[in-house]
Every structure is written in structure tokens, then in C-alpha cells.
DNA sequence: CACAGCCAACTTGGCAACAAGTTATGCTCA
DNA sequence: TGAGCATAACTTGTTGCCAAGTTGGCTGTG
């Protein structure tokens, strides 16, 4: 017991065990250094990590405090029902905001996925999802202009993707296989989510097809703050 | 562009874009400090973070180098087929080692899940999974002694859980709903996985029931190194 | 020329001293 | 007595210096 990561573990277990509660003041860096018999710099590093992991916040001249962790929202990972509908059904204070709609430069993977050619244009539509006014998920939909002619005009006004599909005459859908992975937020994602760097994001890649024709309508990438959710598979 | 996290982002994008490849030597801390016009301590912090995220390794007196990232193994998240079978079918160099089998102290959640009482004993069986000799997943099975009388004797010899079930007369199974979450490894998990602290773990909680009687046989918790896998949902 | 050894110029690692911010106490003065 | 200000004792934040490790080139010697 001497490395800073050991102290991180220790403090996390003390916080989750209830020894320290939300907004409690933690021991000062010097106290930590004394109790664990390490130089202050080690105690300090431990606190810096905890801050980046979203467990604590610090106030210069005052001390370090336990952060209020977000509630764990149960999220069912299936493609059939829209995200907003799921959230509203569960009774959450849900909001959604479309934050961008812009053309992307050529990208082999996405163009192949949408079964389109280099001559086509593809737009990405970003929608930020809020629960209790906190941004907790980012949906990025990639749509081809050859399929959705007016996407560059109306993209920023889309609130529900399914509604938009309906207005284009697509009424029944198949979901393509979903791929899950974990990543860390980039600078812009950190800004959007207003979150520390070391909060991992759960990334869900999927797609949507028209059931009748089999045409690929959308390539979808969803980024979830992993500290806000637990995910239920069926 | 001045914070250490911005430099982390920048370097990650340079590495993934192919500007720096595996085992390439990265600019020294001082060079980073000069190019981004920050004090060396900032450059240093950025490198420390990258090291803990598993992107780079450092050699004192020599420099910092790009780490060989693990291949992404596609893992299908369904409870029907055993983990080892899936891996072997895909042609991976797969190994499994049972590393512990011990009684746990009373824990309400697990006891309830296994539908047993405080008088019962519950054992946890830990199996570490290797691919290409690298530990990449930890399976922890919780089994009740009332269901598996000889678990404390033979627990350490179990290689396949399904085989063990068969030997007890259970032949057909139902999988309970799976819950997914993300966490960071504890000290012991870090030792087992031989990994830096900031590699997130994907945690899959599930259970196994006997199809005929509906009896809950097992509470299962699987920890996957998130940097080794991409997960496919069906 | 060949080779051994030394030294200088890099690298990362660690730490101590100082800076800045906050608070509480106690002193001064009306 | 009471209000206000100075100060001391904490807190976290920052920086710069030196130690330790590695490399490669230069130099002296056979």
C-alpha cells in the first residue's frame, strides 16, 4: 500500500461504502500523505485521478469534496423503440436538442454501410439527450442525401427520427446488428457532456433499414455517459 | 489548446491516424512542451495519462513509445453458448484458468438473486480467460452449496460450467436478463489483468436457470477488458 | 586504425519550496 | 462592548531544480 492507485482504490471503496457521503469534505492532501506514509505529491495525484474520474471536486484553499454521483438509469438496449420514448415511458424529465447537421467528408466505412457511392453526400445529425437537464447521451445519425433529399434543409429541425422516416413514407423498420464498445470522450464530447475526461463512454453503433425494401436508411452512433446508465440486454 | 487533456486528445488522434505507429518513439516531454507552449509538467501529465490509458509506455532516460494496442475481438453477447466455445470457434488461441473458489460472506443482493437464505453458503468461482496468453476476461460464478453440494471440493477443478451442470443432471438452461455496466479495475483486478488502472472494464451481470424447474443455478459476473473487445448485440 | 573508457547531452523521475486562496482567530481602536 | 482589520494557519496549485538512467560521440591509448 503505497502507490497512488492504491489510495484511489481505498478512497473509492470508502466513498461507495458510505464512509464519505456526497459533499463531505475529504482529508487534506497532507493528512492523506501522513496516514498512508507517502509524499504529498502521491496523495495529490490520487486526488487528481479521483477528480478526473468524477468522484470528487476540489476548492483551492478549502479542500476536496465528494461529488454527487448520478443516478443509474436503466436503459434497455434494443433498437425497436426510440430512445426518447423509452425515457418518457420511464417517467424521466427528458429533453432532446438537435445540435448540428452538417455534411461529412468521404469516409469509406460509413459510405459502405449506407451502400452509397463517393458521389453521394452524407450528412450527420447530432442530437443531445438530457435527463434532469443533464446531457447524458449523444445520438449521431448519418443519412444520405440520395435517400433524404431535403436533409440539409430540415436536418436541424428533426426531433424524432422515426417521425421523419414516416414523413418520407418509411413505416416499418429492421435494425441492423449493434456493435458495442467503450471509449473516452474527445474534447468536443467533453464540452457537450460537461464531464471530466476519464468518464468512459459506451458507444453503440447500429443501423436502420426499411423493412419492405431492405434499403439502409441510417447509420447511427450513440454515445452514452457510462456513469449515468446501467444497460439491460434482452 | 493549452490544457493537458487537449494534448492527450491530440496525441491519441495522431496515434490512431497513423502518424505514430506501434513502438515509435514519441517526442520528448520537453519537445511537447515547446510545440504546445506549455510548461513541461503539463506535457508530462499528458504522457502519464496516456500511459495509464494504455496508449504508450515510457523508459527512463530514453523516451516514450507507442504501445501495441490489442486486437479488437468481436464478442457476441448472448448467454446461450459458453465463452470458451465462442472463442475456440473463432479460432483464437484460448486458455482458461480457475484461480479461486472460496466462500463469500453474506451479501443480500447475491443471496436474493440465488433465491437462498442466510443459512446457506455461497461460493464464488473465479476463472481467468486468456487469448494469446493475455488475460482478457474474468468470470466470477456464484453458486449455492445447497444446489451444488460438492462445490467447495471440486470448485477449483471446474473448467466448463456447463459440463459441471450436466454432471449434476441439469441439461437445459434459461438465461436471466443481462445487465451491462462500466467500471474501473480494482487493485486485484489490475494484478489479474496485468493492466493499467484507467482501462475501463465492461461488466456483464447475468444468471443461469434450469429450464425444467426454473431453479436459479448461478449468478454470473463477467469483467471484460474494454480495450480488447468490441461487442456485438443480436 | 581499433578499441576502451569517459563524459556530455539528452531522456524521464521525484521532490521541496513557494504561490495563491480561504478561514478563523485575536488584536486594535472607537 | 463591538466592529473591523491584520495575521496566522490551514487548504490546494505551480514551478523549477536536481537526481537517475541511457545513449552516443569524443578522446586517449595500444
From TrEMBL, chains A, B:
Mention one GO biological process in which this protein takes part, according to its record: negative regulation of DNA-templated transcription
Q: Which Pfam families does the record cross-reference, listed alphabetically? A: GntR (PF00392), UTRA (PF07702)
The record's annotation in SMART domains points to:
HTH_GNTR, UTRA
Q: Respond yes or no to whether keyword Plastid is given for this record.
A: no
SUPFAM superfamilies given for it?
A: Chorismate lyase-like (SSF64288), Winged helix' DNA-binding domain (SSF46785)
Record carries keyword Transmembrane helix: no
In this chain the HTH gntR-type domain maps to 1-69
Record PANTHER family: MANNOSYL-D-GLYCERATE TRANSPORT/METABOLISM SYSTEM REPRESSOR MNGR-RELATED, MANNOSYL-D-GLYCERATE TRANSPORT_METABOLISM SYSTEM REPRESSOR MNGR-RELATED
Recorded protein name is Mannosyl-D-glycerate transport/metabolism system repressor MngR
Provenance organism: Desulfosporosinus acididurans
**Lineage per the UniProt record:** Bacteria, Bacillati, Bacillota, Clostridia, Eubacteriales
**What gene does this protein come from?**
mngR
Amino acid at each position: 500500500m503505497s502507490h497512488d492507485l492504491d489510495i484511489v482504490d481505498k478512497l473509492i471503496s470508502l466513498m461507495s461504502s458510505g464512509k464519505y457521503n456526497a459533499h463531505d469534505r475529504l482529508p487534506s492532501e497532507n493528512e492523506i500523505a501522513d496516514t498512508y506514509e507517502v509524499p504529498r505529491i502521491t496523495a495529490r495525484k490520487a486526488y487528481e485521478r479521483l477528480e478526473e474520474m468524477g468522484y470528487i471536486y476540489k476548492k483551492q484553499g478549502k479542500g476536496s469534496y465528494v461529488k454527487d454521483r448520478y443516478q443509474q438509469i436503466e436503459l434497455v438496449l434494443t433498437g425497436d423503440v426510440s430512445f426518447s420514448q423509452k425515457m418518457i415511458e420511464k417517467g424521466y424529465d427528458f429533453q432532446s436538442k438537435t445540435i448540428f447537421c452538417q455534411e461529412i467528408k468521404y469516409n469509406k466505412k460509413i459510405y459502405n454501410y449506407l451502400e452509397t457511392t463517393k458521389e453521394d453526400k452524407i450528412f450527420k445529425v447530432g442530437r443531445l439527450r438530457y435527463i434532469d437537464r443533464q446531457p447524458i447521451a449523444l445520438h449521431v445519425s448519418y443519412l444520405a442525401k440520395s435517400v433524404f433529399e431535403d436533409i440539409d434543409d430540415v436536418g436541424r429541425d428533426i426531433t424524432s427520427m422515426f417521425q421523419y422516416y414516416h414523413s418520407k413514407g418509411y413505416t416499418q423498420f429492421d435494425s441492423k446488428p449493434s456493435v458495442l464498445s467503450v471509449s473516452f470522450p474527445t474534447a468536443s464530447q467533453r464540452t457537450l457532456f460537461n464531464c471530466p475526461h476519464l468518464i468512459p463512454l459506451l458507444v453503440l453503433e447500429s443501423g436502420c433499414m426499411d423493412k419492405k425494401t431492405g434499403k439502409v436508411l441510417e447509420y447511427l452512433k450513440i454515445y452514452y455517459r457510462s456513469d449515468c446508465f446501467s444497460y439491460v440486454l434482452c
